[in-house]
Structures are given as C-alpha cells and as structure tokens.
Amino acid sequence: MAIDLNTYFDKISKLRMIHRILIFAGSVVLIAGLYIWFVYVPKTGEITAIKSELDRLERNIRLARVRANNLKRLEADLARARGDLKVAMKLLPTTSEIPSLLKNITKLGNDSNLEFLLFRPEKQVSKEFYVEIPVSIEVLGSYHNVAIFFDKVGKLDRIVNVVNVSMIPIKELSTTLKTSCKATTYRFKEGKKTESVHKKKK
User: Which of 20, 63, 124, 191 is 20 to 30 Å from 147 at the Cα level?
Assistant: First the structure.
C-alpha cells in the first residue's frame, strides 16, 4: 500500500504546534536510536576489539625487544667469558706443559749469563681450581744479569711470580751476586682431580 506523502504532510500541518514538535522530536529520537543500534554500537565494539588487539601486539613487541636485548647481552657475556677462559688457559699451563715451562725458565737464566746453583721444584699447593708449583732457585751473576732474567721471566706467556728475592755478594766488593728466590707458576687442575676434590669436600 503506497503512502501519499503530501496527504501525510497536510495532516501534520493541520496539527497544533505542540503536536508537530512532539512528532519531530520523536522522529529525531527514532533516527538517533536506529543509528546508535545499527551503526554506532557495532562500530564501537569493533573499535574496542581493534584497540585491544593493538595493545596486545604492542605488549608483545615490547617483550620481544626486551628478550632480544637480553639475548644480545647474554651472547656478549658468553663471548666475553669464552675469551677470558682462553686467556686463562694460556696463562695457566696444563700438567704436560710444566716440564717445558721449567726448562724454559732455566734457559732464560742461562741466556742471561747466570749460573744455576739450585733449581728445585717444591711441593705443589692445591687450590680450588688450580695448583701452585713453587720452585726454589739460586743463581750466580751480576745484578744487571739477574734483572734481565727476571724481566724475561715476567714476559713469559705463562704466569710466573718471583718472590722472596735475596741478593748477597759472593765476597766483599764483588759484583757477582748469589741470588736466591722462589718462582711460582700455576696449572689448571685436571678434570678427574677436580671431581675427586669436590667429592672429598662432600
């Protein structure tokens, strides 16, 4: 059934002003309600869902960045630790390298024009991760040659500490000195020995 709009508007125009205002207000409310129900509410829900997803993605990105930074830091720490281990392994010889190291120290003394009176390895001292290997040394030579010898020992790749140095002229006004000292080098503990030490502690 077709609606004659002209007849409809004629009827409205004949109504009192208050009635026309009420009809207009009702129409506005109806249109607004339809807009809110069919357009605004669905869009609001969609916007809320999108915003929640955006917040979730931003949180994930922040977590990923933190994890990436931590991973980079851990990788850098690991690389640094590996480098430190290589340096330590170079400075502390293994058991099989000790004889050649002691022989090298003797050669440095001979090359410095020193005469060895004593070169005696002492009892080794066991520590938690390494072993001290002290050697008692007595040599004859000038102060200058002894200084050269100590300098060469200090420049070795391996750690060798020289302590308890004593210098005495072999006779009055002599430039030849009898020098005694203790040279201590170190080595890593072997794996099996380290395990046995830990078992004893337990």
Answer: 124
